[in-house]
Automatic annotation (TrEMBL):
It comes from Mucilaginibacter celer. One of its GO terms (molecular function) is FMN binding. InterPro entries: Aldolase_TIM, OxRdtase_FMN_N, Oye-like. Keywords: Oxidoreductase. This is Alkene reductase.
Length: 382
């Protein structure tokens, strides 16, 4: 349905999926899989179900294998128990009328030996990404990793494929490849962390190869129209040396051009958190999302710091097809209804983003649109 006042509230056909609005819940690590098996919990089902009025939910980044780990209490999607845990979540979201994609991730060299019984994590090259890893003992500096063998790269690609199959078995509506800064994929793209001399290093084509090999493996189990990728070519926080370089723009142009042939669900693009002036990607500063429209013909989900107003505006301008909201969804489980009825927004507390419990997770109340508190209306006659 067309809503000229608020395009965010329009229905949107995503291939054969029908989104009830154009509001996407962005993937957010919340560290609530507080058990040794990293199994998604009933508390997580409650959290996601509370947010099911989003047109689409994308889960927190989820480990594709035991080798992919590098942050405490983040769930995996590689064991039968984990699949069973996710089933509870997809069922709860579907019962509340929502749709949900699983975000598949691998942290590569930005992990820590504390997660591997003292063994080093592996990455594209034996180069310390110089970032911080959230271990069970708190944040620790990353170390120089082992370099992936070719066999390990091939195995990692298979791990993504198996995780994608597991997501299907768990009842997800699609999957998103987590290629946001700091993760394994950008470590391959970056000149700073990838100095390989084989077919996965050197040229732009070689460094980007892993994205397409992962994608090709995943679309053996999912229709490409149910697969997305989230990435950003620009600066982001706590990602160490994986920052834009002089080949970032041509790299992304190459990737976008090639992705045109894939008929993906969408590309999920995060914007710049900082002023890009003086960086190798300064050319993206103005009208950031239009650059992607120019090089990519498929659907775009725009992300980073959007508000109700700026989200409606960019949709009206046709520069994106859907908008994802991260932090606003933490304290506003009923974000869509708040947009609809112009209700005030609550502030989230960053101190409880990863604290592993109910507090700061499922205890943010809705604004009461559903009868618990009356929808704002004409003042009652006295
Ligand atoms: C607590 C928290 C955890 C996040 N975890 C992930 C994640 O697992 N995967 C991912 O792609 N992005 C992650 N992000 C980034 C968000 O998806 C989003 O890009 C970012 O919050 C900017 O959108 P916003 O300004 O609407 O919050 C996280 C953000 C926050 C605040």
């Amino acid at each position: 349905m067309k809503n000229t006042a608020q395009p965010l509230l329009e229905e949107y056909p995503l291939g054969d999926l029908k989104l009830k609005n154009r509001v996407v819940m962005a993937p957010m690590t919340r560290g609530r899989a507080t058990n040794a098996g990293l199994v998604p919990t009933p508390l997580m089902a409650e959290y996601y179900a509370q947010r099911a009025s989003a047109g689409l939910i994308i889960t927190e980044g989820t480990w594709v294998s035991s080798k992919a780990i590098g942050f405490i209490n983040v769930p995996g999607i590689y064991t039968q128990n984990q699949i069973a845990g996710w089933k509870l979540i997809t069922k709860a979201v579907h019962e509340h009328g929502g749709l949900i994609f699983s975000q598949l991730g691998h942290i590569g060299s930005a992990s820590h030996p504390d997660f591997f019984g003292g063994e080093l994590p592996a990455g594209p090259s034996a180069i310390n990404p110089q970032s911080q890893c959230y271990t069970p003992e708190g944040f620790k500096a990353t170390l120089t990793p082992r370099e992936f063998t070719i066999a390990e790269i091939k195995q990692t690609i298979q791990d993504y494929k198996q995780a994608a199959q597991n997501a299907k078995d768990a009842g997800f509506d699609g999957v998103e490849i987590h290629a946001q800064a700091g993760m394994l994929i950008p470590q391959f793209l970056s000149l700073a962390t990838n100095q390989r001399r084989d077919e996965y290093g050197g040229s732009i084509e070689n460094r980007a190869r892993i994205i397409f090999e992962i994608l090709d493996a995943i679309i053996e189990v999912w229709d490409s129209a149910r697969v997305s990728i989230k990435f950003t070519p620009v600066l982001y926080t706590h990602v160490g040396i994986v920052t834009p370089d002089e080949e970032t723009i041509p790299m992304f142009q190459y990737i976008l051009k090639k992705l045109n042939d894939y008929n993906l669900a969408f590309l999920h693009i995060t914007g710049p958190a900082q002023d890009l002036t003086g960086t190798p990607v300064a050319a993206l500063q103005d009208d950031y999302f239009s650059h992607f429209r120019h090089h990519y013909s498929g659907r775009l989900v725009a992300n980073l710091g959007f508000t109700q107003q700026s989200g409606n505006m960019i949709l009206k301008d046709g520069k994106a097809d859907l908008i994802s909201f991260g932090q606003l969804f933490i304290a506003n489980p009923d974000l869509v209804e708040r947009f609809k009825y112009q209700l005030p927004l609550s502030e989230s507390n960053p101190d409880t983003y990863y604290t592993g419990e109910e507090k700061g997770y499922t205890d943010y109340p809705g604004a009461g649109y559903n009868g618990a508190i009356a929808i704002p209306h004409e003042a009652d006659p006295e």
